[in-house]
Amino acid sequence: TRVTQADTVAAKNSAQAIRERNATFKEMMDAMVEKNYTALQKLNADYDKNLKEFEKTIKEKGGYALDFIKLKEQLDKNYEIEYQKIQYDSYIKWRDIQRKKVDTQFELETMILDLRKDTEEKALQQSELTYKKEQENIKRRIKDEPANAKILGEQLNVLTQKYAQDQADIKEKYSKEAFDKEIARQQEEIELKLEIVKEGSQAELDLQKEQLNKQMEVDIKAAEQTGVDVNLIKEKYKQQELELEKEYNQKLYEQTI
């Protein structure tokens, strides 16, 4: 894949946008912390204020200590509820910011990979990135949907198995492509040599045998993928080689008559 100047400019613009987004995340985190701190300060201040008002009211009305204890228990209960709510709201905001940061990192990695030349390494990394995205999504759902944790855990296991298979398939694909390319190069080289050697010579016979061996390599590799008996293929090419030798000997004999 050829990377154009427009691609490079687009990459720089995207990278700048991501940097700006990360800066925004920091601002969001700072704002969240400040809001949490302010809310807790107000909660504590309200608690102290209400507690003093209870004490004053009970004293003015000549209440008993038991009345104060009951009021304080209710005040403490309300305080705990509000405190947990503030902490939970802060956690949700923090969680969402962290998730957005992860998503932004995924975007950056995707952008970088898209600009790279198509290679086995790129394909493997793209597969890994896809796996990480889907894995992150399932892990988020496990946290957000604890009731479905078992089912989602099974999905995560299936995803991991699929990822391992994808990686194996990619390696096999590029291995086969490299093998086919090399065999094609060697066969082309043999064809060129056959054009310049003398017809009916020992050199021609050797090249024809080499040509058969290269084709046999291709067929054997394919057979290993499909489960075909490799010995049958070897026997087939052995017979073809014998035929070549027979033709060579026949021509050699005819030349001596």
Q: Helicity level, as a percent range?
A: over 70%
H/E element order: HHHHHH
Major beta-sheet overview? none
Let me know the average pLDDT: 86
Low-confidence region ranges = none
Structural class: mainly alpha
* N-C termini distance: 61 Å
Helix segment count? 6
User: Beta-strand percentage?
Assistant: under 5%
* Overall morphology: rod-shaped
Our Rg estimate from Cα atoms comes to 38 Å
Number of separate strands: 0
Descriptive account of the structure:
With 257 residues, the chain is mainly α. The chain is 90% helix and 0% strand. The protein is built from 6 helices and no strands. Helix 1 packs antiparallel against helix 2 (65-114) and helix 5 (202-226) runs antiparallel to helix 6 (230-256). The longest helix has 57 residues, at 5-61.
Write the layout of secondary structure elements.
Layout: H1 5-61, H2 65-114, H3 120-144, H4 149-196, H5 202-226, H6 230-256
Sum up the structure in keywords.
single chain, 90% helix, mainly alpha, rod-shaped, 257 residues
Brief overview, please?
The chain has helices spanning 5-61, 65-114, 120-144, 149-196, 202-226, 230-256.
